[in-house]
């Protein structure tokens, strides 16, 4: 913003302090003795003549005076009565220094000495960039910096930046500074009456050029690593722009940032950006490593910093250069504060990994979504098999409670029972309802993040009814099989042993444990939903890890496997591994999580438990057989049945919501689009509720 300054009668340099005070008051005619003028006079009278710490404290006081929200009244012309306070105060400071050599000279000496005693290399080449420690090293380093006190580094401009601007919101204040006033102020304090060998502007320029060279070396080293080159086969090693980046920056440094050398640097940096884009797209297709994502982010930010520095060096001296400098300083300040955030580095580097994990889970979820009536019936039959296996699993779990086992071995037996049951379902092609929501939610999230808005929404309007009726079919198939299977198992056990699987006390304990409000059923069901969601993440992560490490290709070409099974056999084994690794990881992880949570809770004295709807229903059926036919009509048993329905809703709702939320955030889906989808689905349900519950008629 251009700020026209009033033109009072000029003062000759060297006038008395009384005349200077009168001159300052001339800028505040409506408020003689205005605090802004009075504070500025005191500030200029106390400029320290020696000591870096004292000088830095004075700079801090000066910036605090500029940041005062009260404007210096009377400085602006009537055409601009609403000018920000920082503009009026900066204009007052500038006018005083322009007309008073006795105030300007100490300030010029202070600026010169501060710039000579501090280094800007770290500020321009490290602040706001990952530290090069790797993802986990970066996280631990930030944690240490937050928890441990940091030693002072007064010789670094990076520390001065945070000292002057301690909150991230100060970046907006920096951006509001008028560059034309800063250019004039900078020209005033460059030399003073005794110009130095190197002016402050020359020192800053040297730091910027040095930062270019350092950033080029670091970016080139990261861009030429093996895993980056392997994922960019389109560019040969000798043609890699990262190989040229260091040489071009050396030319920029040797020629003191000549315009033609800066243009060449811009071309090479653009080519490096293209390589990073190619590698990122390769990760989207072939799997993600969080450490590689971290390094790509460091390369990308380094290139962006080099472009910002090149714009400053290439800008004309004065207002244009200060405009670019303010952009860089505001960005440095924001990133300097973000450097201290552990959540920021986790969120920025794990987003792509989360996206790939969700997509991997979504691919397996596609198999649990039916379209035709035949697919719907096949899913019901698959769910029936899952219910049959679950009934036997529930019996084994209750039988394990009768064994006198130490907690470790009891947890081991439970984990083996769970894992064996889920793996048997995988082998037989059976389906369990509770494992579907997180996978189908991932599929839904992937579909939301693809294609144009109109086509995407129309696809989702058809996809969501298919998901809901498939979920319902699986749940009904599980429940309808668990009941007769549990009763049959109880009858077989009673015939074999002469008594039911559960005694009366155990049966009453099961009924009471499933009561919807007299027990922790609601909390435990929600906790189980979280575990179900976590198992889907493990499944997606394991598949992503196998794809990224190219495990299927390694198996197909393994010498021992090819010698033992033949080429076709090794290829078939690799294909089986590729298609089942996600399900294997999900089944093993959910089995271990369900078994260990109560054991771990007992170890710490916490009453933790799980409520898995299918297993809980199987246990309730076993308890009902033990109590007899009259007991199942009692209020407490009917309440336990209501607890099963509540567990079903909570298991499904929690796991589906968590998976869908992560999928939407990983794909950066706007909230407005989600709300629009909810409205469309509500209208669709009111018009055709059958599509959400039953398969198509043909």
Beginning-to-end CA distance, first to last residue: 69 Å
Number of strands: 0
What's the pLDDT, averaged over the residues? 81
Helix/sheet category: mainly alpha
The major pleated sheet works out as: none
Our Rg estimate from Cα atoms comes to 35 Å
Number of helices: 29
Low-confidence stretches: 1-32, 75-81
Topology:
Layout: H1 17-25, H2 35-45, H3 52-67, H4 85-99, H5 101-117, H6 121-125, H7 135-147, H8 157-164, H9 170-175, H10 179-188, H11 200-223, H12 226-230, H13 241-254, H14 259-286, H15 290-314, H16 319-338, H17 342-365, H18 373-401, H19 407-428, H20 436-448, H21 453-497, H22 504-513, H23 521-548, H24 551-556, H25 559-603, H26 613-627, H27 635-666, H28 671-687, H29 690-693
Q: How would you describe this protein?
A:
There is one protein chain. The two termini are 69 Å apart. The radius of gyration is 35 Å and the shape is elongated. It has helices at residues 17-25, 35-45, 52-67, 85-99, 101-117, 121-125, 135-147, 157-164, 170-175, 179-188, 200-223, 226-230, 241-254, 259-286, 290-314, 319-338, 342-365, 373-401, 407-428, 436-448, 453-497, 504-513, 521-548, 551-556, 559-603, 613-627, 635-666, 671-687, 690-693. It contains 29 helices and no strands. The model is unreliable at 1-32 and 75-81 (pLDDT under 50). By secondary structure, it is an all-alpha fold. Helix 15 (290-314) crosses helix 17 (342-365). The longest helix has 45 residues, at 453-497. Helices cover 74% and strands 0% of the residues.
